[in-house]
Specification:
One of its GO terms (molecular function) is 2 iron, 2 sulfur cluster binding. It is found in: Peroxisome. Its cofactor is FAD; Mo-molybdopterin; [2Fe-2S] cluster. This protein is about 30% helix and about 20% strand. By secondary structure, it is an alpha+beta fold. The strands form 15 sheets. It has a six-stranded mixed sheet with strand order 3-20-45-43-42-34, with helices on both faces. A five-stranded antiparallel sheet has the order 9-10-15-11-12. β42 and β43 form a beta hairpin. The chain is globular and about 100 Å long.
């Protein structure tokens, strides 16, 4: 049996393929390196969007697939939908969306601000901010879109004719019919078997034996979701898999009298397209269920999943959090089943259909053929609802489907189903019965609310956690449905009062406005030479390789001859003694070559640690956390080839030192090479050694090359995360809000070892003032040991946690005094001449300018009033605004790390090879170093190439961290290049017109050294001594400010970031495109920190959030709808290379503006008496313009605790109302929670 396929028009034939191979693994192991992406959309604007590049090919191919799938240019909304499911940690998505915008029908001029000066008749005021963009010394274009070649469909690669001929000749046949009926993913669950007869092309017959599993569709060798999870994650093996795509009975969509019959193998994408056609051709009243399904599909995973998942698969997996099953259950959809032994039967989906967790009322010999989704009548009303952690591509926390059939203004029948509240999709049968015959009025609402809370009870220890929140969502969804039905009834029935204006906000679906953005930066002087790239938006040096898929990462390195693959044996206990280690079961597995453990790393060689030696390479006598490495079985790989050992780390020197220690050899015999990282952000500063050191030990013991690749779940178990913090504070202040004294205690969860936790806490202490002056301040840090994975560095290094505590103080002071938060913050801002709490002088401060400019740019005063007016006329949706500053000290707080080295080599042909101690992880460090060298050597950037970072080129390099890498390595590169330029001075003077190449050759002929090293140690630093409370820890400070506006749904906790404006001081930017990309990426990463990302553990210490299914990052539809970034103009910095400033970490904290905008919106809900009364119309009715009745300013309405992240759960539960008051708090000690947030 052979598999034939084509990549970029190149034919590949593989004999005896393994069905479990995936394409990525195949290309890596078979070394088909020339198969890079050849998508015509690789334009210069897309190239500029790439940072680390690890996710870039996924975005490119998603956009390419969209472009090829339709004859006309897609809309921007379609582009956003196509990108859903692709995650990015670097860019913040904005540059990707902007880069691909030119391919859409919404392509527009770069400036997208709703209040753009170009859209005004004239300046609104005589201020610098109101001047047209063209009148400023500012530039908004980061690239010239006109330089991009237009998309030309005629240049596309055609579908290979050889495959078309093979399909026509039916040389490879799927089943075309099945005697017992039709087959689908329906029986993809592990406890079902199937026996039946398959007809291939009407001629060949095969019989399905028990345990044969059915798969759809063409794109997937196994069931898209369930089977993929079970095979890959649960290591489930199946005797047989049958692909059923091509069976006509299972792929048909038919409109019938009672409804739409959809084949069980129809993919969700196909169903989506058909439903659009059907709904557009029918009266709206008939398509209530179909419209609800279509709406739900917008939030059902990503398009890639919908392309392969089927309707039948969703039903038969019987997931209690399925998005579709509640809709099918509430609508009483009909399943058409067939069996070779029992014949055909129809089964209505009702309260008895789901019999238990992931089980249903279908026998093991039956298959699902099709599903009939009924039409609704004019008397029926139907809606579906879903709430998840993230807006897009996320599983439901709770979902619901509700149907009522009315008789006049009374309920004839009701059907209500919920997901995410029990082990099965649940019908609220008691509530449904109680509703029959009742009038659709306020009393019904109140009684149904109470009934649902009684009937749908979620035990405090229920799987999934968030039990009070899930309980609150149940009646919250019903309230929305109540308003919808009431609104529809009031159109034709005078007896039904119209929905109050302020409740009509809940009638429509959530529609996110199209994304838009602007970016402004100062243009270079007119007399700057054109070949001088400093200050220009030069494209990322590796972007083209990253966009085309040619860029290689650690697992792309080809296998070595006789390579072994190492897989960790990890602890399953959080705190336990090791009685013995028995590897006999591992050696019983074919291919296992060795088992490496603590016995192979004797004595002190097994002891390790970044600062304190409190860790082990392999656990020897006891374990400290679930996931701690105990051993490393090494297995012979299947495809031996050549192999280059490397480590993707931010600190090659640390890896070199740890490996040398473990192997008992000097560091000069260990070379660590780092080409590029797929993102870094601190997490790869110290923790990569948990994989690299065991791999090196295994290679030393076995005398074979060893590859260790961590699965995502293993990675999150082993490498730790950002430190959780707890802050406790006391503050005194004047009546005008000026701080007098602040005392703060900070507690960090270090995990099971010190690692970098002390350094993280030290920076937290030093930055706990954020941007505010206080004459009397005491801050104390406590690093707490726990039996959890060791937490580590992450972008900000403790600063965001500590700064959030200070901002909480500022917000509380304002609330207590009844003053605007922005006023209290402004009155306490640092100014030149002030000293910090560690006595460092504030100088060259641009904080006041950033603060003023961002409010002008954001039109803060006007929009604050507009938000208040919105809140007066809306009850269940509220808006909030916040403006937040940032001050971030630049330098390593560990003094010796503030040094860097570089090596610059000039070859006889004039080309330049540059290497330095920093690592490239998408932040554009290599690109900036090329720009520095280009200016210093007065040559085009094209002449300069940067070699991989390696410990045999630059020794003792500091980590690429602390936002200081451009400063440190840039000065080192500058010094090396300056030395070379000075050596060429005699030849420049002798022949000034000869040019670079001639000067280089002349120097070579005169035996002048054409290589130079550069070294730089940051001057003026003394570090900070916490014992004597003396020292200068920072070289300078970076400043910025941001305004964010949000809208929250008080009934669900969902929120939308409507707009963010940022002004950032980056000095004289080395590269505006890179710097703006860093600002946007850091901001969205901070958005995840403050609104979404949570680590959850079981009570026994097992990490539950071990992958993207449970740990949620911001997605493409979570970022601000409008995002405007301005680099502060006419500023410099005498303390860094070419007057630039550090940019990696400082902008991250500005995302707290979203957190405090959310808190502002929640406070508006808590102040609104109408919201507290929930559905009480008499208390809630208010006419437009009528004064809003609020609680006393300065009362508990605004003084409340909101922990970070401000997740949907926390937002909803902070919006106190009648629903939350009816949910009893469980008594501590009477239950064991399912999860614990630390």
């Amino acid at each position: 049996m052979s598999l034939i396929f084509f990549i970029n028009g190149n034919k590949v034939e593989e004999h005896s393929p393994d069905p479990e191979w995936n394409l990525l693994w195949y290309l890596r192991t078979k070394r088909i390196l020339y198969f890079y992406i050849r998508a015509p959309i690789i334009l210069i604007d897309v190239v500029r969007a790439s940072q680390c590049g690890f996710c870039t090919p996924g975005f490119v191919m998603s956009a390419y697939a969209l472009l090829r799938s339709q004859p006309t240019p897609p809309s921007l909304a379609q582009l956003e939908e196509a990108l859903v499911g692709n995650l990015c940690r670097c860019t913040g998505y904005r540059p990707i969306l902007e880069g691909l915008r030119s391919l859409t029908s919404d392509a527009q001029a770069p400036c997208a601000r709703s209040d753009c000066c170009r859209k005004q008749n004239g300046p609104s005021a005589d201020t610098e901010d109101s001047k047209p963009c063209s009148d400023r010394q500012m530039v908004e274009e980061l690239f010239d879109a006109t330089s991009c070649a237009p998309y030309d469909p005629s240049q596309e690669i055609i579908f290979p004719p050889e495959l078309l001929e093979a399909i026509a000749a039916k040389t490879w046949l799927p089943p075309f019919s099945i005697t017992c009926g039709d087959v689908d993913t329906a029986h993809a669950s592990a406890d079902h078997t199937l026996t039946g007869e398959i007809h291939l092309g009407g001629q060949e017959h095969f019989y399905l034996e028990p345990n044969a599993h059915l798969a759809v569709p063409e794109e997937s060798p196994i069931c898209a979701s369930l089977k993929g999870v079970e095979v890959r994650m649960k290591h489930q093996l199946y005797k047989a898999l049958v692909r059923v795509s091509g069976v006509p009975q299972m792929e048909q969509v038919e409109v019938r009298d009672v409804g739409v019959r959809i084949g069980a193998a129809v993919t969700l994408t196909q169903m989506e397209r058909k439903l659009v056609e059907i709904i557009s051709s029918m009266p709206a009243y008939k398509t209530g269920v179909l419209a609800a399904i279509l709406e739900m599909l917008k939030w059902f995973a990503g398009k890639q999943i919908r392309n392969v998942a089927s309707l039948g698969g969703n039903i038969m997996t019987s997931s209690p959090i399925s998005d579709l099953n509640p809709l099918l259950l509430a609508s009483r959809s009909v399943l058409h089943l067939d069996s070779l032994t029992g014949g055909a039967r129809d089964r209505v989906m009702d309260a008895t259909f789901f019999t238990g967790y992931r089980t249903c009322d279908v026998s093991s010999t039956e298959v699902l053929v099709a599903v009939t989704i009924p039409f609704t009548t004019q008397e029926e009303y139907f809606r579906g609802y879903k709430q998840s952690r993230r807006r897009d591509d996320d599983i439901a926390i709770v979902n619901a489907a509700l149907l009522v059939r009315m008789r006049g203004d009374h309920v004839a029948t009701a059907n209500i189903a919920f997901g995410g509240v029990a082990a099965t999709t649940l019908q609220a049968t008691r509530t449904m019965e109680a509703m029959e015959g009742r009038r659709w009025d306020e009393q019904l609402l109140q009684e149904v609310t109470s009934s649902l809370l009684q009937e749908v009870q979620i035990a405090p220890s229920a799987p999934g956690g968030m039990t009070a929140y899930r309980a609150a969502l149940v009646p919250s969804f019903f309230f929305k449905f109540y308003l919808h039905v009431r609104h529809e009834l009031s159109k034709t029935m005078p007896s039904v009062a119209p929905v109050a204006p302020h409740h009509q906000e809940l009638l429509g679906s959530n529609k996110r406005p199209p994304h838009r953005a602007t970016h402004l930066y100062e243009q270079v002087p007119s007399d700057q030479p054109s070949q001088d790239p400093v200050g220009r938006p030069m494209v990322h040096a590796s972007a083209l390789q990253q966009v085309t898929g040619e860029a290689t990462y650690v697992d792309d390195l080809p296998p070595y001859v006789n390579e072994l693959f190492g897989a960790f044996v990890l602890s399953t206990e959080a705190r336990a003694d090791i009685v013995s280690v028995d590897a006999s079961a591992a050696f019983a597995v074919a291919g296992v070559h060795a088992f490496v453990s603590a016995k192979d790393v004797p004595g002190e060689r097994n002891v390790c640690g970044e600062i304190v030696k409190d860790e082990e390479v392999f656990a020897s006598k006891s374990v400290k956390f679930i996931g701690q490495p105990i051993g490393l079985p090494s297995v012979v790989t299947q495809s031996p080839r050549c192999f280059l050992l490397g480590s993707m780390t931010q600190c090659p020197e640390a890896t070199q030192a740890r490996v040398a220690r473990a192997l008992g050899m000097p560091a000069n015999k260990v070379v660590v090479v780092t080409k590029r990282l797929g993102g870094g952000f601190g997490g790869k500063e110290s923790r990569p050694v948990v994989a690299s050191v065991p791999a090196a030990v295994a290679a030393s013991v076995t005398k074979h090359p060893v590859r260790v690749v961590l699965e995502r779940a293993e990675d999150m178990l082993l490498t730790g995360a950002r430190h959780p913090f707890l802050g406790r504070w006391r503050a005194s202040f004047t009546s005008s809000g000026v701080l007098v004294a602040v005392e703060t205690d900070l507690f960090s969860n270090a995990g099971c070892s010190v690692d970098l936790s002390r350094g993280v806490m030290e920076r937290a202490l030093l930055t706990s003032d954020n941007a505010y002056c206080c004459p009397n301040m005491r801050v104390t840090g406590y690093v707490c040991l726990t039996n959890l994975p060791s937490n580590t560095a992450f972008r900000g290094f403790g600063s965001p946690q500590a700064m959030l505590v200070r901002e909480d103080i500022m917000a509380a002071v304002a609330a207590y005094l009844g003053l605007p938060e922005e006023l209290v913050r402004e009155r306490n801002l640092y100014k030149d001449g002030d000293r910090t709490h560690f006595r460092q002088l504030i100088e060259n401060s641009t904080l006041a300018r950033c603060w003023r400019d961002v409010q002008l740019q954001a039109q803060y005063a006007r929009r604050r009033e507009e938000a208040q007016q919105f809140n007066r006329t809306h009850v269940h949706k509220k808006r909030g605004l916040a403006v937040v500053p940032t001050k971030f000290g630049i330098a390593f707080t560990v003094l010796p790390l503030n040094q860097a080295g570089a090596l610059v080599m000039v070859y006889k042909d004039g080309s330049v090879l540059l290497t330095h101690g920093g690592t490239e992880m998408g932040q554009g460090l290599h690109t900036k170093m090329i720009q520095v060298a280009s200016r210093a050597l007065h040559i085009p950037a094209a002449k300069i190439h940067i070699a991989d970072t390696a410990t045999d080129k630059v020794p003792n390099a500091s980590p690429t961290a602390a936002s200081a890498s451009s400063d440190l390595n840039g000065e080192a590169v500058l010094r090396a290049c300056t030395e070379l330029w000075n050596r060429l001075a005699p030849y420049r003077q002798k022949n000034p017109d000869a040019g670079w190449d001639s000067w280089v050759m002349a120097a070579y002929l005169d035996r002048v050294q054409l290589s130079a090293t550069g070294f730089y140690a940051t001057p003026g630093l003394s570090g900070f001594n916490f014992d004597t409370q003396e020292g200068t820890p920072f070289s300078y400070f970076s400043f910025g400010a941001a305004v964010s506006e949000v809208e929250i749904d008080c009934l669900t906790g969902d929120h939308t970031v409507l707009r963010t404006d940022i002004v950032m001081d980056v000095g004289k930017s080395l590269n505006p495109a890179v710097d703006i990309g860093q600002i946007e990426g850091a901001f969205v990463q901070g958005q995840g920190l403050f609104t979404l990302e949570e680590l959850r553990f079981s009570p026994r210490g097992a990490l539950l959030t071990t992958g993207p299914g449970a740990y949620k990052l911001p997605g493409v539809q979570d970022i601000p709808c409008e995002m405007n970034v301005t680099l502060l103009r006419e500023v410099g910095n005498p303390k860094a290379v070419y007057s630039s400033k550090a940019i990696g970490e400082p902008p991250l904290f500005l995302a707290s503006s979203i957190f405090f905008a959310i808190k502002d919106a929640v406070a508006a809900a808590r102040e609104d008496e109408r919201f507290q009364h929930y559905g009480d119309e008499e208390a809630a009715i208010v006419t437009a313009g009528e004064p809003l009745q609020t609680k006393t300013v300065g009362s508990s309405a605004r003084l409340f605790r909101l922990d970070s992240p401000a997740s949907a759960e926390r937002i909803r539960m902070a919006c106190n109302d009648r629903i939350t008051s009816l949910i009893p708090a469980p008594v501590p000690g009477t239950f064991t929670p399912w999860d614990v947030t630390v």
